[in-house]
Amino acid sequence: MADVSRLAQVRARLELPLARRASGLLEGRHRSVLKGHGQDFDDLHLYAPGEDVGDIDWKSSARAGIPVVRRFVRESNVNLVLVVDTGRNMGATAASGEPKADAVSFCCALVAYLARDRGDRVALVAADAGRIVQLPPRASTQDLELMLRTVEKQLSVDAPASDLNRALDRALNAFQRRSIMVVVTDEARPGPEHERLLRRLRVRHEVMVVAVADLSPVGVPLAVGGPATEHRGLGQVADVDGTLDLPPFLRGRVDVAEGAAQAVRARRESVVALLRTLQVEAVSVTGTDDVVPRFVELLGRAKRARR
Question: Confidence band (pLDDT; 50, 70, 90) for 128?
């Protein structure tokens, strides 16, 4: 990426209608976390399209003959905590063919952008088997830019192996006040080994998961990598988490591609089943172009789930 503001990059790619919708859905998450508005009444104003109909004051609307909304003074003190898996699996190749690190970085930047515009604070827990980074809740543009660059520096195929439990455990112990936790990992996680910590985290906080999908190692052009993979010479793909080294002659074979697709579906179904049991909303993104609409979808689903 060019050495420019990460938040400016989000703004350049975020269409205004989507930005307003995401901001409104995030407001809804704040109200659920804070158990109602929880702020002092300020005044009444005319309802505008896009506002939450739940805010309409029906008695005042009946007297006025038009929809009227109750306005409250909002002093949000909720934290948005980015819990980022920085294992080497996150430095490989996304389903879109671009580096997974780009999708992870853009997702983090989107959360920071929305939070900054709302005046909220964002904290970071980024961890793998060999490293852990924690940054306290901050709201200034300068602090958020530093946070985003910190995440980017952790994402590499040369990084230690993934250890999502380490990140979840730190998030659980470091943040006592109820927060919104956005867990960013890959589509193979969370698994059964993460259930205990996720369950404890879910009791205390609002938890959402964004998973970055892997590129299939078969049935794609030879010049492109594969799931949790890196290049090792032209047309060769290697699993960064294991010893798999896929020779070029297996690429494009229908039977191999079908077997790989079935394995991916089974893995996704197991992750979905686990998160459904824990009542944690999640989405899978294929690349940077997929982040904004899928994150808006995630916020919408999470808001409906709390009604």
Answer: very high
Residue among 190, 197, 199 nearest 267 (CA): 190
| Cα–Cα separations (whole angstroms), residue 153 to 51, 69, 141, 262 | 39, 45, 18, 34
Residues 6+ apart with CB under 8 A from 3: none
97 SS3 class: coil
C-beta of residue 297 within 8 angstroms of C-beta of residue 290: no
SS3 274: helix
**Alpha carbon 209 to its chain's center:** 6
Pairing of strands 41-46, 245-246: unpaired
- 185 forms bridges with which residues in the sheet? 211
| pLDDT digits 0-9 by tens, 230-264 | 443 434 555 666 656 666 666 666 776 677 677 77
| 3-state SS assignment for residue 68 | strand
Per 3-state DSSP, the chain is made up of helix, strand and coil in percentages (nearest 5) of: 45, 20, 30
Under the banding of pLDDT at 50, 70 and 90, the label for residue 96 is very high
Peptide bond into 293 cis (omega under 30): no
Q: What is the pTM for the complete model shown? A: 0.75
In angstroms, the CA 289 to CA 96 distance is 9
**CA-closest candidate to residue 26, choices 151, 110, 138:** 110
Judge residue 158's burial from the number of C-beta atoms within 10 Å of its C-beta, 0-12 exposed, 13-18 middle, 19 or more buried: exposed
